[in-house]
Amino acid sequence: MANMMIKKQLRSISLPSRSHPSTSGIEEAINKVKTINTTKSSSESIFTGLAGLEELYDCTDVFLNMCSTQRVMSSVRPDFMEEMLDGSLRLMDICSVSRDLMVETQEHVRDLQSCVRRKKVAGGDVAVSGYVRFRKNMRKETKRLLESLKSIDGRSSSYDHDDEHLVAVIDAMRRVVYVSVVVLKSLLKFLSGRQSNMKSKLASVLKKKKCDLEDAKNELETLDSAIRGDSCSRDDLQEKLEEVEMSIGGFEKNVEGLFRRLIRTRTTLLNIISH
After folding, report:
1. Which residues are CB-neighbours of 227 under 8 A, at least 6 positions away?
2. What phi, psi does 51 have (nearest 5°)?
3. Listed residue (264, 219, 253) closest to 98, CA to CA
4. Letter string b/e over residues 164-183, b meaning 16 or more CB atoms within 10 A of that residue's CB
5. What is the pLDDT of residues 7-42, one digit of tens each?
6. CB 231 within 8 A of CB 208
7. Are 201 and 111 in contact (CB under 8 A)?
8. How far is the C-alpha of 244 from the C-alpha of 19, rounded, in Å?
9. What angle do CA 127, 130, 133 make, to 5 degrees?
10. C-alpha dist (Å) from residue 206 to 153, 200, 217, 269
């Protein structure tokens, strides 16, 4: 579902693209993110989106360092530069907090894996309680981040100017922001998952022989169901923990790369303003 959501949202970009030779690299990178393979699973789709954003910001860095781009941006209105700087700061905050949440998720997963491997029911109950509390706080934090994204969707009013090159540059930068918002929104919804009642003890999980989790949509939601003890055996739970560890570990690496690129883009924007 997350991959279909990304595809649908990216198709709905309503900003008119002002094509210009200097923006061709950014447009190509945006199109790559827009053509996410919807036949893959949601986690794979998010991997593709995040990797696409890393490539997009590499193109953006080259674009912003072009003499022609810096020349036209030196005449842009201050409100646009403020819009870009504020957006980059918010995106950096979202990446930073998301990365911290993923690091903590992996710590809880490792605690649960240790208990499951050793069949430590007593210690497992403590690990489960810690995981349940963390997931509750995680949902609150992702909700806050999703609210923050609403203020930087990159769909501001059109920029009127006689210089077509300048208009194309501004349009391209806003499209970069919009695509970033769409992909990060999908990541945050993946991390949040659906609300569920997770009060069961690990003891009930370890005694089960089957795993019946068809209703879960992604790896984290599947793990949440397993923690609830929804007909899930110890082996099933171990498998779900490994799946979450793999997915979250991949996301964390991609988000770290994106964070570094956002810092670089923001630095370039500040340099353009100062000259």
Report:
1. 112, 128, 131, 132, 198, 200, 202, 205, 237
2. -65, -40
3. 253
4. ebbbbbbbbbbbbbbbbbbb
5. 545 544 444 455 566 778 888 888 888 776 533 447
6. yes
7. no
8. 41
9. 150
10. 45, 11, 23, 54
